[in-house]
Amino acid sequence: MKIQKTTVGAIDSDVLAFTAGRDIELDMNLIAADCIGTAAHVTMLSKMKVKPALITEAERKKVIGELNEVLRTAAAGKFKIRLADQDVHLAVERTLTEKLGDLGKKIHTARSRNDQVAVDLRLYSREQILNALEEAAALIAALLTFARKNETVPMVGRTHMQPGMPSSVGLWAAAHAESLLDDCALLVSAYELNDQCPLGSAASYGVPLPIDRELTAGLLGFSRATHTVLYANNSRGKLESIILGAMSQVMLSLSRLAQDLMIFTMPEFNYFTLPDGLTTGSSIMPQKKNPDVIELVRARASRVKACELAVYDLIKASPGGYNRDLQEAKEPFMEGIATTRACLRVLAPFVQAIKVNKKALLAGFSPDVFATDRALKLVADGMPFRDAYHHVKNNLGELVNVNPVDAIQQKIHLGAPLGIKWSLLKDRMKAVNETVREERRSIRAAIKKLMTVK
């Protein structure tokens, strides 16, 4: 047995490696969050009404200064989390202690690594959600521009993948945009649930010191603190599951968009042509231009859902209070977010570069596509709908091709091919971007003030 000394005691080296897991790698994503969270905690401790002062104002400034140095070191790729640290929290504490001596040993007062990782993940999550919202809005903008440009281009509307009724390319693209707009609403809801500060809950049961959790929440730019200290930690895993649930809905929308693009770019359809620069070739077939990107988007929707379910399964029977099982939620959580964001980013240029083949779209119309329109014309002339339905059904041979452009021009009610309120959809998209801008402005102001940097 080889014993290794750590900040929190001596431990067998094999046990240390096993329990640290991938935290040494994954926590590199949390360095900034941990420094910011530590700055807020130390600032709160310096204002706590106790005598003698636990941390003086001068000491607070020293700690903030060293935390900023950690941030600069991390930005340069030089900050290291050692195996003996186990995680980013003890790595930051070790660094502060090396630089500040006994002052560095004070920073963990009234907190646990449990509430440290909880606040780190919330700080990380809010930035990731804002980034995802911004990237979703960019894809929505591309879809709406494409839709408006092709508003009057006819396209066969399908059910069961079979020709159904006259529709348009504009309606097709706008529908995918609206789906993503609803997903953005879910992301905003997840953001609002995430917008609570758990710091100060310690090991889930509070501390016998007059800490000010509301002050800490404000210093970090959160709208409020979580209320009960036990739920502050019990929300770990649950919150990640909620965020991944919203991300998986985004991926569901992207997967369906990808599937449509797969079908409509097949030579047999040829409705759309994908740009050469965004497709790949074959190692044996010289003529191939493969839509690998959209195939991978379709596949990765399952990956993100698997990440959500992995976190859910980890916590579904977890007892109250912290359990080390939660450590295993970090990897799928970060993977699910990163995968979703990558898919959002890669699809926007695809949509912008799609070529619409109007000739192929028009060739997709046959007389039976106008069957429902013919039945409704008979209704307009006074025939009961079911009678009109059976009349057309029994006389399909009498149907003739109608000009598809004329057909979709008749569909002007709300949400129909010629009844889409573009301003409504664009306003929803703008609201997403405005939410991102407002939240970032508020957060950055709070963090700049806390860290006393320009």
Map the helices and strands.
Elements: E1 3-6, E2 9-12, H1 13-20, H2 23-26, H3 31-46, H4 57-75, H5 88-100, H6 102-106, H7 113-149, E3 154-159, E4 162-168, H8 169-194, E5 196-197, H9 213-219, E6 224-225, H10 229-234, H11 238-264, E7 272-273, H12 292-315, H13 330-353, E8 355-356, H14 358-363, H15 371-380, H16 385-394, H17 404-409, H18 422-451
Parallel strand pairs: 5-6
Antiparallel strand pairs: 1-2, 3-4, 7-8
> Can you tell me the overall shape?
elongated
CATH topology of the largest domain: Fumarase C, Chain A, domain 2
Low-confidence stretches: none
Supply the CATH class of the largest domain.
Mainly Alpha
Q: How much of the residues is beta strand, in percent? A: 5-15%
SSE pattern, N- to C-terminal: EEHHHHHHHEEHEHEHHEHHEHHHHH
* Derived structural class: mainly alpha
Number of strands: 8
Using the CA coordinates, give the radius of gyration. Answer: 28 Å
Largest sheet: 2 strands, antiparallel
How many domains make up the 3D coordinates?
Answer: 3
Strand order of the largest sheet: 1-2
Annotation field: number of helices: 18
Q: If classified by CATH, what would the architecture of the largest domain be?
A: Up-down Bundle
Distance between the termini: 50 Å
Word description of this protein:
This protein folds into three domains: 3-109, Orthogonal Bundle (Fumarase C, Chain B, domain 1); 114-150 and 168-363 and 421-451, Fumarase C, Chain A, domain 2, CATH 1.20.200.10; 367-400, no CATH class. It has 18 helices and eight strands. 61% of the residues lie in helices and 6% in strands. Helix 3 (31-46) crosses helix 7. Strands 1-2 form a two-stranded antiparallel sheet. Strands 3-4 form a two-stranded antiparallel ribbon. By secondary structure, the protein is mainly alpha-helical. The chain starts with a strand and ends with a helix. Strand 5, helix 9 (213-219) and strand 6 (224-225) form a beta-alpha-beta unit.
